[in-house]
Each structure stands twice: as structure tokens, then as C-alpha cells.
Amino acid sequence: MISLLCPTRGRPKQALNLYKSFINTQSDINELHFCIQREDSFFDEYVNLFKINGIEKYFVSESMPTSYLWNQMAFATKGDLLTLIGDDVEILTKGWDKIIENEASKYADKIFVITVDDGRTDKPQGKFMRCPHPTVHKKWVETLGYFVPPFFMHRYLDKYTQNLAIELDRFIEIKEVIFNHLKFNYSKDKTGRRSRNWINYDHYIYEKVSGKYFSKDLEILQNNILNK
Q1: ∠ at Cα 83 (221, 15), nearest 5°?
Q2: Which of 87, 158, 194, 224 could pair with 15 as two cysteines, CB 3.0-4.6 Å apart?
């Protein structure tokens, strides 16, 4: 089973769109868990919309950084495979879950990071695909003690995780699966503006702090890899 983890704020209709694309494209029964925040002005709309559409798997939280929410959700869900996802995504590929599970099954030690196509037409720098929606096995989370590094607020979570996988030679690119990352007008989208307010903080942490933890995380993961 794959558990998709989605903190959502200020975008109830977009969360519903993600849910519908999830239901309509999966081959087996997986989980899509939302997390909504009590002080969100759209809180009641979320609850009503979830009730009308039979969405029962959601957490309620106080206002927290998305890194905290994703990590809490990672330990609270049932899937062996965990995927970070945002409410600004629409899943386009039918049978995406079978494709991801097939790739994951190739690694007996369960230490890997899987990425899929995020649908953006501009090409990332370097030879690797982007990793905005990483998938890991629960063993990755249990080994490190977290899914994404908790010292970030929102940004650089994917880059840090991707860099670990690249150093381990366990970064798996699946180009045929598309989790389409939708574009928003950030001048009007409060949720987007809120996360952008954290850019400078997260950039500072990435440049000045995260390296102190990266080498240790890498060593811990390397010790769990078979057939090095």
C-alpha cells in the first residue's frame, strides 16, 4: 500500500481535485491522507467537502510548518510506501501505484527515493529529474527518525532527500508517471505566499546548518544498504 501525505491549506477545491485524480488513477486501494489546520479560514469548508465526498482520512492540526506535518503523518499512516504530495497536484497516469511498487520491490533493503515527472516543461539543472514528490519505504523514515529533515520549514525538503539518495546511488527516476504540478497565481494565492515567506529561512538552514546532519544521515542509511 502507498500512503500519500498531503497537508492542505486554503485550497479545499484543489484538495478535492487531487483526491478525485488519486481515486480515478490507482490500480489497487491506497491511502491519501490530508491534514487541515484549525485556524485556516477554510477549515469548515474542508470538513463539509470531505464529508460530502466520503473523505474520512484526514488529520486536524494546529498551524505548523509543513515539514512537521509531513513527518507526523509519515508515522501515523499504514502504507509501506510513503509519498509527499501537495494539494497543487493532479495525478495523470493510470496505474501509477503499480509502477511505483514494481520499482520499489527491486530493493530488498528498502533504502531508496523514487521520483516521478512533475509535469513542468522547463528542465531542471543537472542530470537528474526534480524530486518534489519523493516516495520512500517506511524503513527510510524509521532509520532516520524522520521522512524529511525537520530543521526546514517547507523548502529544500525534497532537495535534501534527493541528495541523500543520489549519494547512495538509490535515486530512482520514473519518467512515465506524471504527478502534474499545477501553477498558481501567487499574488492571489495566500497559501503560496505563506510558504514563500519561508524561503530565506530555509535557504539559510540549507547553506549553514543542514550539512552538519547530511553526512550523519548518509552514514546511517549506508549502514542499512545490502550488497554495497
Answers
A1: 155
A2: 87
pTM for the predicted model, two decimal places: 0.91
Per-residue pLDDT of the chain (228 residues; tens, 9 = 90+): 999 999 999 999 999 999 999 999 999 999 999 999 999 999 999 999 999 999 998 999 998 999 999 999 999 999 999 999 999 999 999 999 999 999 999 999 999 999 999 988 676 767 899 999 999 999 999 999 999 999 998 889 999 999 999 999 999 999 999 999 887 544 465 666 666 667 888 899 999 889 999 999 999 999 999 765
d(CA 194, CA 81): 29
Q: Which three cell numbers stand for residue 218?
A: 548518509
Provide Rg for the chain, Cα atoms.
17
Counting Cβ atoms within 10 Å, is residue 224 exposed (0-12), middle (13-18) or buried (19+)?
Answer: middle
